[in-house]
Amino acid sequence: MPLPLLRDPATLLPSLAAAPHLHHHHLLLLLRALHAHLLVTGRLATPPDLAAFVAALASSFTTHLAYARLLPRHPATLLAHNALLRALARGPRPGLAFAAFNDLPLPPDNYSLTFLVRAAAALASAPSSAERAAATRAVVRARPLPVAASAHGAAVRRGHAADPHVQSGLVSMYAALGDAAAARAAFAEIPRPDVVCATAMVGALAAAGDADAARDLFDGMPLRDHVAWTAMIAGYVHAGRSRDALRLFDEMRRAGIAVVEATLASVLTACAQTGALDRGKWVHGHMRSRGMRMSVTLGTALVDMYSKCGAVATAMEVFESMAERNVYTWTSAVSGLAMNGMGLECLEVFKRMVSAGVQPNGVTFVAVLRGCSMAGLVDEGQSCFDSMKDKYGVDPWLEHYGCMVDLYGRAGCLDDAINFINGMPVEPQEGVWGALLNASRIHNNVELGKHALEKLLAIESGNDAAHVLLSNIYAESQNWKGVSMIRRMMKAKGVKKVPGWSAIEVDGKVHEFSVGGKSHPRYKEIEMMLAEMTRRLRLQGYAANTKEVLFDIEEEEKEGAISLHSEKLALAFGLIALPEGVEIRIVKNLRVCRDCHDYTKLISKVFDREIIMRDRNRFHHFKDGKCSCKDYW
After folding, report:
1. Is 288 exposed, middle or buried (0-12, 13-18, 19+ CB in 10 A)?
2. Are 485 and 452 in contact (CB under 8 A)?
3. Residue 383 scores a pLDDT above 80
4. Longest dimension (CA), the chain
5. Where does each PPR repeat begin and end (predicted)?
6. d(CA 274, CA 284)
7. pLDDT for 253-306, tens place per residue?
8. Share of the chain above pLDDT 70, in %
9. Residue 14 pLDDT more than 70?
10. Quick check: 254 and 273 in contact, CB under 8 A?
11. What is the per-residue DSSP string for 65-103?
12. CA-to-CA distance for 272 and 613, rounded, in angstroms?
């Protein structure tokens, strides 16, 4: 059979595409036969053909990588080695590029360094810390920071230090490896950084958590292309400053800068973080109007955004419409159903994922276990946890252990939770003790709560939420001495309770309310609506649940304190600002208290409104006086 030209690795030998299905012995025979044919015909005598063959083998990765790594040595050409580096940098385990760089038999050129940079950037952009850890196992063996430093030194020695791609690449490489100081030092050596290099430094500063410094550099850039704008938006998202990200995106559009896929992916993440559904819908509409392809990246970002805004039905519509899905797409769908309390549906999608041949990862199992916990599916969660290692080869993380304690604890199986903790093969961390403390609150078990808090504070002495949870347990029992003790403990340690806030989106603008806040321009109307809400609820027999109020004060004062909780202010504003029949969507930074939960259930019935609230733990879908959590949160 005549063999095609090797200039494009994607066209290399149809037989290679089927090779993964061959037995290892037969595969090796095939590769040797192909190699021999190319040698006999003289097609590997020239560096371009050898490089193309190496790249094609390395790109297929799982079955041909080891063979590909042997080829550049026979004969040794930098072009072939660079082809190998490029293929590894683009592959699913980019960390191997560091080991290959270490093995270079020839001095590296600017392309070698550029491909190493790509590998570092790929490692840093892994979707989660767990995925990044999996991707970097090979890098750990190759000691990435020393390798990166040697690449920098090689660039200087070989005269490539002034190459603009290498310069910006060095900044990106150090940033991707988490060495912000080295990135700053590399940037400082550049006399006149171009837009590529300055953009890399913006990304480095943002990744290091210094979004303000990144913005200062961004504002000072004489030229800013769409890459620079996108880097700054992504930096804000990385720092959790989603509102700043959305404001900058508006500036980008007004400036007439082209909006690309990476920009929209970051904007969708910002919408997900703030619960800005209208803005997220605008992005989705923009994609349609511009005829943008529903890529895996954008589709996954849309599923995540809609799920985190409580529009789980729309999230699943997007998911089902996607022609291509990867493990992150499936995991986003599973996680979205879980956080919205749809445990059975979460399990069903997980089963579909496995049936489709997609290997679940650790993040997937966190989502499934949370879904089981939210829905009280103890047996199903236990079965899922048991299958992780035995069936899927996924070693449990601390998050998985925490999910199991939460699963048992929420269901009232406190003895099972304690036995599970005692049987853990690793030292329990804050997630485990936090889950047990929350279970103690749900079931009002003071002694168990004290034990969990003691363990938790030994790890995180400044955990404000843990102090408040135990204080609420004491308050439920009318143990005001216990409440006072917790308050004194917090004061002595300098621990301050994180202020509660709630946000609601109206006409594309996010309005934020704090507890007792009166600064909103429409506060007078909000105050009048609060009075009307309370009047109508009392006609339905509502009485404020003041048990979680932390002060031993008169009952009337307690009712006044909880009547101004931030979610009630946001709810009142939603009733006056949104048309009838429109869902009211609220995002809260803390767990919703019992009184506000009961209050919102009644509001949904009395005012005939569907209300969707996202608190720190989960979604609550209120309708006709009921909540999707079934009072199980």
Report:
1. exposed
2. no
3. yes
4. 95
5. 225-259, 326-360
6. 16
7. 999 999 999 999 999 999 999 889 999 999 999 999 999 999 999 999 999 999
8. 79
9. no
10. no
11. HHHHHHTTBTTB-HHHHHHHHHHHHHSS-TTHHHHHHHT
12. 14
Chain Cα centroid distance, residue 395? 20
Query: Left if phi > 0, otherwise alpha if psi is -120 to 50, otherwise beta: which for 395?
Result: beta
Place of tokens 């390798």: 147
Residue 2, pLDDT above cutoff 70: no
Give the C-alpha separation, 625 to 598, whole Å: 9
Average pLDDT, stretch 448-472? 80
For the record, the structure tokens of 608 come out as 């005939």
> How far is CA 407 from each of CA 350, 387, 442, rounded to the nearest angstrom?
18, 16, 12
Tell me the per-residue pLDDT of 590-633, one tens digit each, with 9 for 90 and over. Answer: 888 888 999 999 999 999 999 999 998 788 999 999 998 877 66
The H or E element containing residue 576 is: helix 566-577
Q: Which of 141, 145, 131, 56 is nearest to 92 (CA)?
A: 131
At 509, list the tokens: 């603008």
Which residue is listed with tokens 């072009």?
79
pLDDT tops 50 at residue 346: yes
What residue type is 389 in one-letter code?
A: K
- pLDDT at residue 7 greater than cutoff 50: no
Can you say whether the dihedral through the CA atoms of 44, 46, 49, 53 is positive or negative?
positive
- List C-alpha distances in Å: 413 to 359, 376, 404, 440: 31, 11, 11, 11
Place of tokens 């938006």: 233
Which structure tokens are listed for 398? 């601390």
Alpha-carbon gap, residue 628 to 421, rounded angstroms: 29
Residue 421 neighbours by CB under 8 Å, 6+ apart: 405, 428, 432, 436
| 93 pLDDT higher than 80 | no
Beta bridge partners of 506: 509
